[in-house]
Design a protein that fits this description.
15 helices; 2 domains; alpha/beta; L-fucose Isomerase, Chain A, domain 3; Rossmann fold; 6-stranded parallel sheet
Amino acid sequence: MPCCMHGLTRRQALLRSAGLPMLSALPAAAAGARAPGERRTLRVQPVLVYQIFQRRPQTSWRPWGGLFTEKEVGEERNRIGNELAAVAKQAGYPVEVLPLREVRTVEEGKAVAEGSYDALVMYPASGSVRLLESVARADRPTLVFLRHRSGPLYEWYEIIHPRFLRKTVDEWGQPGVDENDVVVDDLGDVAWRLRALGGLHNTRGHRIVCLGGASGWGAGGKKAPQYAREVFGLELVEVSYEDLGNRLKAARADDGVMKTSRLQAGDYLASKDVRLETSREYVDNAFVLTKVLRDMLNEAGATAFTINQCMSTVMPIGQTTACLPLSLLNDQGYLAFCESDFVVIPSGILLNSIANVPVFLNDPTTPHHGLVTLAHCTAPRKMDGRNAEPVRMVTHFESDYGASPKVEMAAGRKVTNIVPDFNFKKWVGFEGEITGAPFLPICRSQIDVGIHGSTDLLAREMRGFHWMTCYGDYLKETGYALKKAGVEWLNISAARA
């Protein structure tokens, strides 16, 4: 075998020698569209607010602080630049730090505010409250970084709360900025906030293909597509099942597509971590359906997909279930959700955009004794974004038909769980730990999750229906992003009953 085939399975070698794409070789996205897994860069504008004070005899000529000379200002410029370069690497989100701007007058502040950026990081070393107000805009996120011990003490370390946030009264007074936006010394606290803002930035305007139309679960979810557009600016592209049927008919008539799909299915099943417990034909058909759905996404310039009526409607057309195709798309960097439930789908887009790992849309059960079971038939295998979990390929439970992955998620994994409400008013979240992956007579991919927090409080605060889960702890980022979106947040893991 040629050296270029070294390390490939027999089926992978056949794919390559036949000039056919392997599973990992995805088609290019439409011109101008994001590639699967690509996130938009957050453009961050840093601004140093300060004034130079001159000594005057027999009067209070200087405020609190340690930044008083041009030499010290120059040192602070370099310090901010070095720190933000480190923050950009630490954020875990693509961040572009724009050149530092300096504000010593209200006119300079207004010029900064009119600039082109996605988020502002203000360094208020000194100066009047009017300078700070001239820079901050209610329609763009503003972080305030204060120095206590990380450099020269800032005047606003003393007075940011009573003067800027509360305007010398007890009520909040600065539009778009509150105590959650203030950081003292800790660059890590800047990084996770930028990660949260980047996630929200990526969610807004996200385009999603809706096969069979957009909907929402239950009576409470009837307005979910409307709310998804209004609150998160999602762009919903509706595609008909008639279109899917025509595409599948053409795909099945194409010998090249059918050969590729069978070879890809064989390569998938050849892994030692995959057990086939359903008909091979269903798996072959799932790869044909995956190819057709991926073409839809690329033609629409979208990286997110959802399917309505994904049981009885798609089965006769696809001659399999949609479970495996959605799992495959998630592992390939797309976002793919069943049921077209826009009560929960925005939480999946947001959580994926923050965490940069696949997410698992699931049906929750009744929380009890510190435990809750989560299950669905469309789980990704690469839950950590890199490594594929073992999987049993079985039938879809309710229909006992098709190919559905029972992903064996790893016990001991910390997970973030999001519980969205029907009205986009208040979301609930909690950290948990996977305690097992049972095989109950329910949806195939299933995990028991230990609840970090009050089970009673979670049961009392449950809302909506579907939940969203991912590996890792991203509760504080989610809560921060939601506040900027105007959605209330309850962190069960931080709260007390």
